[in-house]
Amino acid sequence: MSNKYSKGPWLWVPSLYFAEGLPYAFVMLVSVILYKRLDISNTEIALYTSWLYLPWVIKPLWSPIVDILRTRRSWIVLMQLLIGAGLAGVAFTIPSSNPLRFSLAFFWLIAFSSATHDIAADGFYMHALSKHEQTWMIGIRNTFYRFAILFGQGILIIVAGKLEIWAGDPVTAWSITFGVLCIMFIVFSVYHWLILPKPLSDQNYSKQQFKSVLYGFFQVLLSFFNKPKISLVIAFILLYRFGEAQLVKVAPLFMVDPIDAGGLGLSTSQYGFAYGTVGTIMLTVGGIAGGFFAAKHGLKAWILWMALAMKLPDLVYVYMAGVQPSNFILIICLISIEQFGYGFGFTAYLLYMMMISDGNHKTAHYAICTGIMALGMMIPGMFSGAIQESVGYTSFFYWVMLSTIPGLILIKFISIDSNFGLNEDLKK
Question: Taking 90 as the threshold, does the pLDDT of residue 21 lie above it?
Answer without folding.
Answer: yes
